[in-house]
Amino acid sequence: MNQDFILGRLAEIMAWETDQARREFAWLRLMSQMKYDGYQDFLAGARFVESLADWLQQFHQDERAIAYTFVRSSLVYISTAEMNHLVELFYPETVVWHLQQDVARRLDIRTWNVWASNQSRTLFNRLRRQSLFIELSDGARIDVFRRANAGLISNEQTVTAPRLNDEKLDELLEDLRKDLDDPKARFAFVFLIDDFVGSGTTLLRKKEDGMWTGKLFRFWEDNEDRFKKYFEDDWSLCVHHYLATQRAKQTTAERSHQIASERGNGKWFSAVQFSYGAELPDDLPLSKDTHADFLALTDRYYDPSIENKHTKVAGTDAKLGFGQCALPLVLEHNTPNNSVALLWADTPGDNNQHAMRPLFRRRQRHS
Which of 159, 182, 251, 362 could form an S-S bond across to 335 if both were Cys, CB 3.0 to 4.6 Å? Predict the structure, then answer.
């Protein structure tokens, strides 16, 4: 669709005067080109400005300025370049640090001396090869990680599915022993990687019946009988997210401590280390103190038909997103369900409820 045409239509929808329309058009063209048009669910002819015009029309005329101001001043959009930058930082800032710490521990040297001798450098290179990188979802961008670290991380160290089987592990172990020329070699590090953690519930939580579940718990259940065969006795588990909320960071640490205490030795990982490429600020979630008018819209234009067994895991409605996280966040490949539903929900309105129109349509992604 011709952008000038849709911008003119947008000016009508917003009832902008000429001077204001000129200012807003400049901002919209800039942000569309630099960021928002890159959203993966947009199609040619129906990108950001078109979606914005359609989204704004669902509100009453006197409410549209509230919705537009929210997009203009509060929306946080992580672009492809920004997310790929976090992926590229994972190895030099996180992986190297973990390996360096372990070399120092094993050789009883200071971490800054790891690069000072052939012995420590050789051990570092060996531990790097003894590391497995497993994605917890397709958001982990293991392909970008591989390309960014070509020559350092081999294809035989990266796994694109979180649920392993004996055949795959046998194959990975055989490649490891061949590369190291060591028939007894086993893996020393596992890095579980994902793009984003908003509440920590999907990673690790306790159900109403008292049983634990989540991606991290499934990794334990799937592999607890395999650890001795494929991993060194004191192997390390590192869970890395490229982006995290402060709430998820705190919740994940608390639940990890709780499950370790409840299950005891031999029934949980001896140590789990969590790391984050970037942490969202603590005051990012919308609140009545900062966004009372927009939160009133999230309440007024809500269709409960978006609720399902996955959203109900958090125990509340989904107006403010999964777990009531109230995030104004959009990732370029998908909108987290932790973001306010008014950003991503799409409903037909055939239940006498408001038909919600998405600004950034969300693709369901569960594991």
Answer: 362
What pLDDT was estimated at residue 43?
Answer: 78
List, for residues 193-236, the tens digit of each pLDDT value. Answer: 999 999 999 999 998 899 999 999 999 999 999 999 999 999 99
- 264: exposed, middle or buried (Cβ count in 10 Å: 0-12, 13-18, 19+): exposed
pLDDT at 309: 75
The neighbouring-strand residues paired with 330 are: 77
Whether 252 and 204 have beta carbons less than 8 Å apart is answered as yes
What lies within 8 Å, CB to CB, of 261 at 6+ separation is none
Which residue stretches of the chain have pLDDT < 50?
367
Kindly report the CA angle at 349 between 345 and 351, in degrees rounded to 5?
A: 125
Q: Which two tokens stand for residue 147?
A: 């390309």
Answer for the pair 318, 310: CB distance below 8 angstroms, yes or no.
no
Burial (Cβ within 10 Å: 0-12, 13-18, ≥19) of residue 257? exposed
CA-angle at 56, arms to 54 and 57, nearest 5°: 65
- Which residues does residue 339 pair with via DSSP β-bridges, in sequence order? 327
